[in-house]
Amino acid sequence: MANKYLNRKFTLRESLLLILLAVVLCLGLYFGLVYYPVHTNATKTSRELAAVQGEIAAAEDEQRKYNAMKDELNSMDKSTVMPQYKNNEQQEVLRALFETIFTGIEGYVINYPSITSPSPGVRVRTVSVTFTINEANKGDAVDVYHKVKSILSDLMSTGYRCSMQDLTLAPSGGNDLEHATEIQVTRCSILFYELDS
Q1: Which residues constitute the domain of residue 7?
Q2: Looking at the DSSP assignment, which residues form a beta bridge with residue 124?
Q3: What is the pLDDT of residues 6-50, one digit of tens each?
């Protein structure tokens, strides 16, 4: 009985439905087996490419910063010196320099929290400085910002090999740092390098 239905000729309507079913089946197979996997892989690859490009950009930026620091170190004023390590004597020399830099400024605080030896033959003296500059004690500087900038520059230009480790400024009374009427240097750590005999 099933043979009777399969051996007969399909009507035009049945033929069209079978062709439509075959087309739908082929499209379904194409989308399921080809289009969606390829599209998913392409999207995933695009995301991975964007992540890798971001990592490359970050690495290039780090390389630029490294090269800039290296160039700065190479062009550093070679007239700076690394004195022999003598704990109390060098601390008194630095104290005298700082008193000169902070002439006319009340309430500055200088601490000598630590001396470390990061590598053989070198000692690093950490000096922490906090101070406040406002309209009353800016002296003959153009404004508070330029006075703070001048002091920080003087601290780094003592003639001794040094580097600034961190700096935190708290401006008040203006829209930004350059227009502030008072600037507090709440944290400033400077590393002074000394030769260890």
Answers
A1: 1-75
A2: 116, 193
A3: 677 888 898 899 999 999 999 999 989 999 999 999 999 999 999
What gap in Å lies between CA 99 and CA 188, rounded to an integer? Answer: 16
Q: Are strands 122-134 and 182-195 parallel, antiparallel or unpaired?
A: antiparallel
Q: Are 124 and 116 in contact (CB under 8 A)?
A: yes
pLDDT at residue 103, as a whole number: 84
Question: How many CA atoms within 13 Å lie on the side-chain side of 87?
Answer: 6
Is residue 150 one of the residues assigned to a domain?
Answer: yes
Q: How many CB atoms lie within 10 A of CB 145?
A: 20
The verdict on residue 80 lying in a domain is no
Q: Where are the beta strands (DSSP E) in the chain?
A: 109-119, 122-134, 162-172, 182-195
Q: Compute how many other C-beta atoms are within 10 angstroms of the C-beta atom of residue 82.
A: 16
Nearest to 156 by CA among 106, 97, 115: 97
Q: How far is CA 40 from the centre of its chain?
A: 35
Alpha carbon 117 to chain centroid, angstroms: 27
Q: How much helix, strand and coil, in percent to the nearest 5, is found in the chain?
A: 50, 25, 25
Q: Read off the pTM.
A: 0.55
If asked whether residues 112 and 191 sit together in one domain, one would say: yes
